[in-house]
Specification:
Blueprint: E1 5-9, H1 15-24, E2 28-33, E3 48-51, H2 58-71, E4 75-80, H3 84-90, H4 93-96, E5 101-102, H5 107-114, H6 116-125, E6 133-136, H7 139-148, E7 153-157, E8 170-172, H8 175-181, E9 192-196, E10 200-210, E11 213-225, E12 234-239, H9 244-256, E13 261-270, E14 276-282, H10 289-294, H11 299-307, E15 330-332, H12 334-344, H13 350-366, E16 369-370, H14 379-404
Parallel strand pairs: 1-2, 1-4, 2-3, 4-5, 15-16
Antiparallel strand pairs: 6-9, 7-8, 7-9, 10-11, 10-13, 11-12, 12-15, 13-14
Helix pairs in contact: 12-13
Length: 410
């Protein structure tokens, strides 16, 4: 692994975990960044930074990337993070044609997984239980779906890269909720997915596959998110034992579609009939992947090896009879918990705020690990929380000034 460089493109929650994993394995880690300096650059495992054009500008990014690769023959791997970076690179024919290893799901399958309608069709072909769904283009079509199906329903963007008015999804339990939340069609969307909402517990698995062989697997339960209705980002997770039916479904999809790369599959186990219903598949490392790494599944390194002729022969297919990772390990994302409370403070009563704060403190104290925190590389986390403290102090100072400002006489 010496003298082999990995270019990681895009900054996200999982980028730091990827950099640490590959840096510990002996790779020279280069972080691609299109914005201002990031806390990730303070990591001891970030050996170099490449400033590049915005990911949304595919042509400029491709031109800059070609020039950078021409100057750096030591770069053997490109590891795009999240969803926008792989989508951008999948459109770059000159990059796809180069003798370089792209650590990402192959373009046609990537697009199908990111398109929620196409992903549902993939699941239907595998005989998964899929809640009734429809692709809609107007408020009237949503109402027609409600008239035919029973509430509750869930509204989602057709692609995960776009949100609906700042949210990943809307759960609507009554006609009144629908009419209140959707008086007008959401901006920046031509289509949405409306789907029957299944009451039950979300079950999911992180996985890594190589040419249709399942080589990494991990299950965790989201105990809380940064939104009260549970549709937000997880702030508290607990690792779970392997669920045979979830594992079977994952293995079936991986084999059928010759999947290579990392992914996150999500299901809901119905409270009504205990059936497992397919929700979505995200063709990437999940944002909370540091928990899987802490529990014994080094997904970033496994993902890189899944694409490398030099390493893929080392990978063994997952055998559920062996214990793959530590179970019942709780991980807390303090930053997300605090920022979620701050973002929702105007929508919560005093009692709800105190309840959230109490749960936050309990999670912090009782967690077996904390998202992205490690004693061997503490500086990024220190900078994250120092910045959060400064923002809180600034907000409190502004509020204090507004309270002290004398009111003018009428």
């Amino acid at each position: 692994m010496k003298n082999q460089s990995v270019l990681i493109i895009a900054l996200s929650r999982e980028t730091l975990t990827v950099a640490r994993s590959l840096g510990r394995a002996g790779f020279h880690v280069i972080i691609g960044n299109s914005g201002p300096a990031s806390v990730i650059e303070s990591s001891r495992y970030c050996h170099e930074v490449w400033r590049h054009p915005p990911i949304e500008d595919h042509l400029m990014l491709e031109s800059a990337l070609i020039g950078f690769l021409d100057r750096r023959p030591d770069i053997r791997f490109i590891f795009p993070i999240g969803e926008r970076a792989p989508v951008a690179i999948s459109s770059m024919q000159k990059i796809l044609a180069r003798d370089i290893i792209l650590v990402m799901v192959q373009p046609p399958l990537l697009d199908n997984c990111l398109n929620k309608s196409a992903a549902n069709e993939m699941a239907v072909k595998l005989d998964f239980n899929v809640p009734q769904f429809s692709e809609v283009q107007s408020i009237g079509e949503i109402q027609s779906f409600i008239d035919k199906a029973e509430l509750p329903i869930i509204l989602k963007p057709c692609r995960s890269t776009k949100k609906i008015v700042g949210r990943k999804a809307y759960i609507l339990s009554t006609q009144e909720e629908f009419e209140t939340a959707f008086r007008e069609w959401p901006p920046d969307h031509t289509h949405l997915i409306v789907q029957q909402y299944i009451e039950g517990n979300i079950e999911g698995c992180d996985f890594v596959a190589s040419d249709g062989k399942l080589v990494g697997y991990f299950e965790a339960e989201s105990l809380r998110t940064d939104l009260p209705d549970g549709t937000g980002f997880s702030v508290e997770l607990c690792s779970l034992p392997i669920s045979p039916d979830v594992l079977s479904a994952c293995r079936n999809l991986v084999r059928t579609y010759r999947y290579s790369g990392a992914g996150l599959m999500q299901f809901i186990r119905s409270k009504r009939n205990n059936r497992l219903y397919f929700i979505e598949i995200n063709p990437r490392l999940s944002a909370g992947i540091s928990q899987a790494v802490a529990c014994g599944q080094n997904f970033p390194l496994l993902t890189l090896k899944a694409f490398s002729p030099q390493f893929k022969h080392e990978l063994e297919e997952v055998d559920e009879s062996n214990r793959l990772y530590q179970i019942n390990q709780k991980t807390h994302w303090l930053q997300g918990d605090i920022e979620g409370l701050l973002a929702q403070r105007f929508n919560l009563s005093l009692k709800e705020k105190l309840r959230w704060l109490f749960k936050l403190l309990v999670s912090f104290v009782s967690a077996d690990g904390h998202m992205n925190w490690t004693l061997t590389d503490p500086l990024p986390s220190i900078k994250i929380y120092w910045g959060l403290c400064l923002r809180l102090f600034k907000r409190l100072s502004m509020r204090s000034k507004s309270i002290r400002t004398p009111q003018s006489d009428n």
